[in-house]
Amino acid sequence: MKDYKQIIASLLNKESGVAAEEINELIEIPPEKSMGDYALPCFFLAKALKKSPVMIAEDLKNKIESNEFSKIENKGPYLNFFVKSEDLIENVVSEILSNENYGSSNIGQGKTVTFDFSSTNIAKPFHIGHLRSTVIGNSLRNIFKFNGYNTVAINYLGDYGTQFGVMLAAYKLFGDKEKISQNPIKELLNLYVEYTKLQEEDESKKDDARAWFKKLEDGDKEAVELWTWFKEISLKEFNRVYKLLGIEFDSFDGEAFSSKFVDDVIKELREKDILVKSDGAEIIEFDDDNIPNVIIVKSNGTSTYIVRDIATALYRKRNYDFFKNIYVVGGEQKLHFTQLFAILQKMGYDFSKDCEHISFGLILLKDMRLSTRKGQVVFLEDVLNEAINKTMEIINQRDPNLENKEEISRQVGIGAVIFQDLYSNRIKDYTFDWEETLNFEGETGPYVQYSQARGVSILEKAGEIKKDVDFSKLSNEEEKFLAQDLYDFPEKVKLALEKREPSVIARHLVKIAKSFNKFYNTCHILSEIDEIKYPRLLLVEATVKVLRTGLGLLGISSPDKM
Ligand code: ARG
C-alpha cells in the first residue's frame, strides 16, 4: 500500500535536504478536511533555510512537482496535501481485500510475551472488579499475537495464602458440603464472611485458622483435599464466565504453583545479602527513598505475596524466556509491582527491565460496593447475563423475527460490556451505565457490530461482486473519508501495541463505523448502475473486513445479522 507520509517526506527531503525520517515525524493529520489530508508545519526549516516559515511554505509549494496529490496548498506556515481520492480508495481497498491480515505485522516474530491477567482468587467471587484485567489483558494479548508475537495467557490464580486457613477452619466449623456443591462461590464466601465475624469476637478462632494454614503448607491430607476441592469448584464457575467472554488461557499456574519455589527464592535473597532483619521479620530496603520497605518473611515465619511473585517472575523467565513479561493488574497494586521489579533488579536480573505493570482505573457502580468482606458483591457472571437478557429485550423490540436470537443476544450483550470497558483510556475510571453500554446508536460495541452486520447484509444481497472496477467513478467525499479511516487502521493497531492501549482501536472502530454510516446514508449502492455499484460494494467489503478484524482484536465477535 502506498505510504503517503513517506511520499511527502521524500519529496521534501529532495527540496530541503532535511532527512526524510525527520520530516515524516512532523507530518500532521489536520483537524479539518478542508486543510488537506496531511499537513507539514514548516517551522522546523526556518533555521536551516534562514527564511520565515510562511515564505518556506510558499517556496516549497511552488517547487514541488508530484502527481500523487490532487492539490498541494500553502496556508500560512503550513503546507497542505490533498490525496487523490480514487487513488486512495483503490489503494486501500485492494490492499485490504488481498491481505489476509490487514493491519498486522510480524515485528514480534520469534519473541514470546507472557500476559498475567484476570488472575481470579479461588473461593472468592469473580466480581465485576475483575472485568477490566480480564478484557484488557485478553485484548492486549490478541494485539500482540496479531503482530507476530508468541503469546502466553496466564491466569495467576490466587489459590494460596493465609486466607485458605480461614476457609478450612470455617469449613470444619460450619461447612455444608451439599450446599457448597450447589452454589460454590456464594456459599464459600458466606463461610469466609461468617468466620471473619467470629474471629473479631473470639481470638482463638484466629489460631485455628493459622493452624489450618500450617496443615495445608505441610501437605496434610485432609487440608490438601479440601483445598483441591475448593479450587475445582471455583474454577468450574470461573470457566463459565470465561466461556461467556470467549477467553482462553494457556496456563492456570497460580500462587500455589509458585509457592513451591519460595524457599529457593528466600535462600537466594539471603545469599545475595538483600534481606535485612527487622523486629523478627526479614525485609528488603531500597536505595530509592520513594519505595517503602517490603516484608519478605513475617515474624511468624510465613512468606508474603510478593515472594511468590518473585518466584513467578524467575519461573517465567526460565520456562518461557520472555521478551516482555506483562502484568495487567489494577492501579491499587502499583506499589507492589514497583517493589517487585526493583527487587528483581537488586537480585541482578537484567530482565527486570522487561517486566511491565499495565495498570488501569476503576469501574464505578452507582451505590454498589465491591468489597467481599461485607458480602455485597456484584458477580461478573450476573452482569454478563443481565447484558444478554437486556439485549434480547432490545432485539425483541427491533426485530422480533430475527433468527438465532439467543446466540446473537449473547454476542451483542457480551460485546457491549467488553467494548464499553475498552473504549476509554485504560488508566481512567469509568462508570458502568446500562443505557450507554447497550445503545445501538451510541459510541458502543452494538453500534460497531451493527454497522458491520449492515455491511454483511448489503454484500449478501449483492451476490457476486465484479472485482475489475474503475474507482475514479467514485467522487463523493463520503467514500474518500471512509477509505481514509480504513487506511489509518494499521497505524492505529501499531499505536495500540506500543501504548498497550486497546482504546486506540476501539475509538478508531467507532470512527470507521460513523464514516461507513454516512457513506451508506449518502451513497446508494445496490440501486446504482454497475460502474458505480461495484466499486462501492468493494468499499463495503473492505469496511466489513476491517471492522471484524478490529472487533476480534478487542475480543468481540461479529454477528452477521442483528
Ligand atoms: N489475584 C490478585 C488479585 O485479585 C491479582 C494477581 C495479579 N498478578 C500477580 N502476578 N500478582 O488482586
From TrEMBL:
<dbReference type="InterPro" id="IPR005148">
    <property type="entry name" value="Arg-tRNA-synth_N"/>
</dbReference>
<keyword id="KW-0436">Ligase</keyword>
<dbReference type="GO" id="GO:0006420">
    <property type="term" value="P:arginyl-tRNA aminoacylation"/>
</dbReference>
<dbReference type="Pfam" id="PF00750">
    <property type="entry name" value="tRNA-synt_1d"/>
</dbReference>
<feature type="domain" description="DALR anticodon binding">
    <location>
        <begin position="448"/>
        <end position="562"/>
    </location>
</feature>
<dbReference type="GO" id="GO:0005524">
    <property type="term" value="F:ATP binding"/>
</dbReference>
<dbReference type="InterPro" id="IPR035684">
    <property type="entry name" value="ArgRS_core"/>
</dbReference>
<dbReference type="Pfam" id="PF03485">
    <property type="entry name" value="Arg_tRNA_synt_N"/>
</dbReference>
<feature type="domain" description="Arginyl tRNA synthetase N-terminal">
    <location>
        <begin position="2"/>
        <end position="83"/>
    </location>
</feature>
<dbReference type="InterPro" id="IPR001278">
    <property type="entry name" value="Arg-tRNA-ligase"/>
</dbReference>
<keyword id="KW-0030">Aminoacyl-tRNA synthetase</keyword>
<dbReference type="GO" id="GO:0005737">
    <property type="term" value="C:cytoplasm"/>
</dbReference>
<keyword id="KW-0963">Cytoplasm</keyword>
<dbReference type="InterPro" id="IPR036695">
    <property type="entry name" value="Arg-tRNA-synth_N_sf"/>
</dbReference>
<comment type="subunit">
    <text>Monomer.</text>
</comment>
<dbReference type="InterPro" id="IPR009080">
    <property type="entry name" value="tRNAsynth_Ia_anticodon-bd"/>
</dbReference>
<keyword id="KW-0547">Nucleotide-binding</keyword>
<keyword id="KW-0067">ATP-binding</keyword>
<dbReference type="Pfam" id="PF05746">
    <property type="entry name" value="DALR_1"/>
</dbReference>
<dbReference type="GO" id="GO:0004814">
    <property type="term" value="F:arginine-tRNA ligase activity"/>
</dbReference>
<dbReference type="InterPro" id="IPR008909">
    <property type="entry name" value="DALR_anticod-bd"/>
</dbReference>
<dbReference type="InterPro" id="IPR014729">
    <property type="entry name" value="Rossmann-like_a/b/a_fold"/>
</dbReference>
<protein>
    <recommendedName>
        <fullName>Arginine--tRNA ligase</fullName>
        <ecNumber>6.1.1.19</ecNumber>
    </recommendedName>
</protein>
<keyword id="KW-0648">Protein biosynthesis</keyword>
<comment type="similarity">
    <text>Belongs to the class-I aminoacyl-tRNA synthetase family.</text>
</comment>
